[in-house]
Amino acid sequence: AAAAPMISSVQKLVLYETRARYFLVGSNPAETKYRVLKIDRTEPKDLVIIDDKHVYTQQEVRELLGRLDLGNRTKIGQKGSSGLSRAVSAFGVVGFVRFLEGYYIVLITKRRKMADIGGHAIYKIEDTNMIYIPNDSVRVTHPDEARYLRIFQNVDLSSNFYFSYSYDLSHSLQYNLTVLRMPLETLRTETTQTRQESFDIFEDEGLSTQGGSGVFGVCSKPYEKYVWNGKLLEAVKNTVHRDWLLYIIHGFCGQSKLLIYGRPIYVTLIARRSSKFAGTRFLKRGANCEGDVANEVETEQILYDASVMSFSAGSYSSYVQVRGSVPLYWSQDISTMMPKPPITLDQADPFAHVAALHFDQMLQRFGSPIIILNLVKEREKRKHERILSEELVAAVTYLNQFLPPEHAIIYIPWDMAKYTKSKLCNVLDRLNVIAESVVKKTGFFVNRPDSYCSVLRPDEKWNELGGYVVSTGRLQTGVLRTNCVDCLDRTNTAQFMVGKCALAYQLYSLGLIDKPNLQFDTDAVRLFEELYEDHGDTLSLQYGGSQLVHRVKTYRKIAPWTQHSKDIMQTLSRYYSNAFSDADRQDSINLFLGVFKPTEGKPHLWELPTDFYLHHKNTLTLSQNRRSYTYWWTTGVLKHLPLPFDEVTCAENRHKLTVKKFHKYEEEIDIHNEFFRPYELSSFDETFCLAMTNSTRDFMPKNVGIDPSPFTVRKPEETGKSVLG
């Protein structure tokens, strides 16, 4: 038996309205299977949703809508007035939200395909529609409703929010592919036990679980930290079928095609921004009492050979790294109107309680070793950034006393600003040394065993590689966590260098290059650098309000002079954004993520002097369970290290899975149908894989002559944008 991710059967939606109800009709792309939600419009404040969990055929849905139309006409037999009108077409439900009056429903009305991972499409939201549910006749108006609505809509859902119907974007590729093997392992280990216990994980008992040509459809619970509409779906999560629930991430997603003599390799960059303690620069710094840090983003680079599509037969590789604010209680006072407000430590934390919670989360998700690369300034005339370094060193030293030495947190301080200013050394060469040692320690994920060519021509670097080798390939264990003060410019360049180093290993493991090294100024690295610049700019706009100030080119010292005037503009733009628009953006993020819930008789969002109490739960209630100062990790985590606890086959993790047995050709697991859409009329020019950035079209110089390899170093005059493009 094989396993495959389950594909949601609700991908096209139409909302119909009568005076008393809304009917949300969802169908699969082929329009052969339908589901219907009934939403009551007569309740002024409550949300009443009925999902009959029945799967309708096209014929049945037509009859149902026809009957509703007839039954809701004002006078029987009247032709003109229709009882049921079509309100809006959509591609998914973002969620339901309520302020002071009734509920609204938020629907995705436009989407654009941004990437494709093994046939699973990833879409960006291009437009949404917010519809008020209760009927006008029962509406109880409130004077402040409009203002809340304005604040909520200030979160622009059409900028950098992503979703997928079949691929879990909140988890890494390593997790998603590891999970696919869990039901098979479960079956193998548990067939000896009583039948009763062993199949609590399988949903459908109808098909025999023993043998057969069936396929397990697997659906995992999303990782809540990176889901942005979790609170909006809370009201309906337990009442509707899971296909209605579409989880959305915020951050960045970009994909380019690297052509190696015509062989298509897709390079994908996905960044997930944490929805816990989220907000804008200067207003969100450090960590909250639960160990969630500000500006925390997980960046994953996925590489796969696009000539073979399926997860089971194709070659996939990925590498994950993290950025996030220094995990201490610290802040900066922006009322001073200085470009660099002084850093203050708000609470003494001698037992590194917050850092412990933060690193505990990381051990569970990534395993060990956790490597901290701290790019904060070490030498300053006035002690400013150094405050953070000193505290962080103390915290890490304290926490490491209790961990087994082989799983200790590794701390690398490196003052990037100082090295940039010095004439003697090249920043990127030095970063490259750090990157090599980091990738060597963590390894990376690849879903196939080493290729025969690396056995024939062994590379000494390859044999020293860390990570965890299993029969099916390699697993990444541990993660690099990079931070500067803002986690924007310096961090992005450092992450790019580590990513470039990992990319070389990934290409080598798939047998595409003969040594795990990549040179600057090759088509491959320029393509990768452009992806990383977009990624950095996008994350910087979300947190700092402007694009990157220092780019990879700045640190390579080949940036043209026009770049410097741009830099000054970006710095000013950031300063302006921080001073004037950040407070409004912070308000809307707090409302959107459900950190603040409007309540009758309580102060309004705009009346609060600070949102400190909303983000630090322990200021309002004392928690009952106090964590140990010495055993600071969750039980069970140490037992499995260096493997992450989240990816181990155990009862606790099995509860996060829904597994269902399907016949081989059912469309819930048929990725071929999902990708090629044989029942739709499509035109060649609009195919996604032709439109995406392509190394030969966009980066290869025109006068290349006989060397089209993307791994050849090009001369400076050749590296302008390709003439063909």
UniProtKB/TrEMBL annotation:
Residues 152-545 form the SAC domain. The gene is Fig4. Its main location: membrane. Keywords: Hydrolase, Membrane. InterPro entries: Fig4-like, SAC_dom. GO terms for cellular component: endomembrane system. GO terms for molecular function: phosphatidylinositol-3,5-bisphosphate 5-phosphatase activity. It is found in: Endomembrane system. GO terms for biological process: phosphatidylinositol dephosphorylation. This is FIG4 phosphatase.
